[in-house]
Design a protein that fits this description.
With 191 residues, this protein is an alpha+beta fold. It has a domain at 19-95 and 136-182: Double Stranded RNA Binding Domain. Helix content is 17%, strand content 43%. Strands 1, 2, 3, 4, 5, 8 and 9 form a seven-stranded mixed sheet that branches. A two-stranded antiparallel ribbon has the order 6-7. α1 links the parallel β3 and β4 (76-77). It is elongated and about 80 Å long.
């Protein structure tokens, strides 16, 4: 949705909130946990049926990207009985960004001791402000890792980002965003 409104004779501050691609990552973990002891993991599924908002292609992209990241850290996927259980959760929200731009036009023809000129002061000052609103989707993806024996949460990673509408873009961005999220995991990838 786009709206444009012109306002003459007003001097407004330039405000810009854009929907540039961003990815905010947060994580937390149990500092007393020895993560090197986890060699296998079981996929515990999607929490609260959050996978129902994803296509089968995107679910596959997410789970494959997660598997690649855990594999690079020396952890293998097993169907059941893993050292850790991984659950996934996703929330998608409709958001709106608002952008305002003010174009100042100075008056012409003022006279001072130095002669005729152009300027912003006095008569003729005008400004045109244009506003636009852009709707977009913001997704928050949460990965929880539980110890299989104690059932305690030992790591949580959260990434919030703008969702690409084109499937061809998501094919590339999902693995990149998962990789960015997993940089916060306590065990670094093996080289």
């Amino acid at each position: 949705m786009k709206k444009a409104i012109s306002i003459l004779g007003a001097m407004l501050l330039f405000v810009s909130v854009s929907n540039n691609v961003f990815a905010q990552v947060k994580s937390d973990y149990d500092k007393s946990t020895n993560f090197s002891k986890y060699k296998t993991y079981t996929f515990g599924g999607w929490e609260k049926d959050s996978d129902k908002i994803l296509t089968n292609f995107d679910k596959k992209r997410v789970t494959e990207a997660m598997a690649n990241e855990f594999n690079s850290r020396g952890m293998s996927h097993v169907e059941s009985g893993g050292d850790a259980v991984i659950t996934l959760f996703i929330v998608i929200k409709q958001k709106t960004s608002i952008t305002a731009y003010t174009d100042f036009n100075g008056g012409m023809g003022y006279y001072s001791r130095r002669g005729w000129g152009m300027g912003y002061g006095g008569m003729g000052l005008s400004a045109t402000t244009t506003y636009s609103e852009n709707d977009y989707l913001e997704g928050t993806f949460v990965v929880d890792m539980y110890d299989s024996e104690s059932k305690e949460l030992i790591w949580q990673g959260i990434i919030t980002t703008i969702i690409k509408e084109k499937p061809s873009k998501r094919e590339k961005t999902i693995p990149k965003k998962v990789k960015k999220l997993m940089k916060k995991f306590p065990i670094k990838p093996m080289k």
